[in-house]
Amino acid sequence: xxxxxxxVIPLIDNVTAISNGRQVEPWHTNRTFEAYGTxxxxxxxxxxxxxxxxxxxxEWLLMGSITLTLGTTVTSDGFTSNRAWRYVRARVDSISxxxxxxxxxxxxxxx
Length: 111
Hints:
By secondary structure, the chain is mostly beta strands. 0% of the residues lie in helices and 64% in strands. The two termini are 14 Å apart. A hairpin with a 7-residue loop joins β4 (41-53) and β5.
C-alpha cells in the first residue's frame, strides 16, 4: 500500500466577519473541506458555506455548509466531496462570540 499525499489549500484564514473567501481551482476531484475556529472567551457560533461553480460568469452554488459552536478551544467540522467543480470558495455566513475567528481549508488528492 502506498501513501498518497494530500495538498491543503487555505480558503479563509482567521476571518472575524461575514465575508467571501478567495476563489481557488482544485486539481483533483477527491476533496475534503474543514472549518475550525475559536473565541477568546465564552461561546460563539459560525456558519461557513462551501460554494462552487464552473464558470467565472455564473452564480455561486452551495455545495455544503459547516456549522460550528465556537469556544476557547478549537472546534472543527467538515465534509467530503468527489464532485468536479472548477472553482471553489468558502463564505462566512455568520460569526459570533468574543474575538471569534474562523478558518477553512480544502484538502485534495489524486485518485
